[in-house]
Amino acid sequence: MGKIKFLIPFLVVAVFLALSSVFVVDERENALVLQFGQIKAVHADPGLNFKIPFIQEVVRYDDRILSLDTDTIEVTPSDDRRLIVDAFARYRIRDVVQFRQAVGIGGMAVAEDRLASVLNAQIREVLGADQVTSDSILSPERRDLAKRIRAQARTSAEGLGLEIVDVRLKQTNLPDQNLDATFARMRAEREREAADEIARGNEAAQRVRAQADRTVTETVSDAEREAQVIRGEADAERNAIYAEAYGKNKEFFAFYRSLQAYENALKGENSSIVMTPDSEFFEYLRSGTASQ
Prior knowledge:
Blueprint: H1 2-20, E1 22-25, E2 29-35, E3 38-43, E4 47-50, E5 56-62, E6 66-69, E7 73-75, E8 83-93, H2 96-103, H3 107-127, H4 134-137, H5 142-158, E9 162-173, H6 176-248, H7 250-265, H8 287-291
Antiparallel strand pairs: 1-4, 2-3, 2-5, 6-8, 7-8, 8-9
Helix pairs in contact: 2-3, 3-5, 6-7
């Protein structure tokens, strides 16, 4: 019994040492085994692993795709219109050994600070390029600009053992003091475009009206010309009929023409006629002639 009591402390120590030498690597992480700050082993596969108790320690790093939101910064594109920009990035630890060597004991906090600095520097460089304007940044073209930022930031991130998966511009706004001036300029541009459209519409309307007036004039002129032709042809036909009638019965033709003259002369608005009784005008109204 005394021997058992003597062995219990050793058993406890042995169990403690055994437990201290065993660690489990999760499938979502990578693990480094460090001995006095030096990397002794890398465990990327999930499972049970061993280390020397008290001498070696295990440092774990997330192997999943992580997210980083950058601080809001101010950029000045080529048209000198300042913009407030912030972005977010998706990244992962590509090389855990290089990552440990780059950030040391600072871990993810130091890594994200450095990565944010890299991203902000590339945002300023890309959005401040000569060919980039504020309109392009505020338009769907910013998707291509984000790709350029990602491509240029990848090189710097590789030195940290990181891989940048994606970069997106989350917010691109004008500073508050520039909003009123920008809105006024946009309003003036829209009013100018509206005035141009109205002017073009009026010009088109004038052309349509001029063409319509010309068409009306030509149509009326053609109709009047055709009417004159028809009227002339009718007068000619009438004169031919009169001539033919005159040739057949001169006396009747003279009588018919006299009746027409009486009708025109004795209308209600011209009921007074002054002439001599023996005038030839009343030749067919005299009783002697009329009785024949």
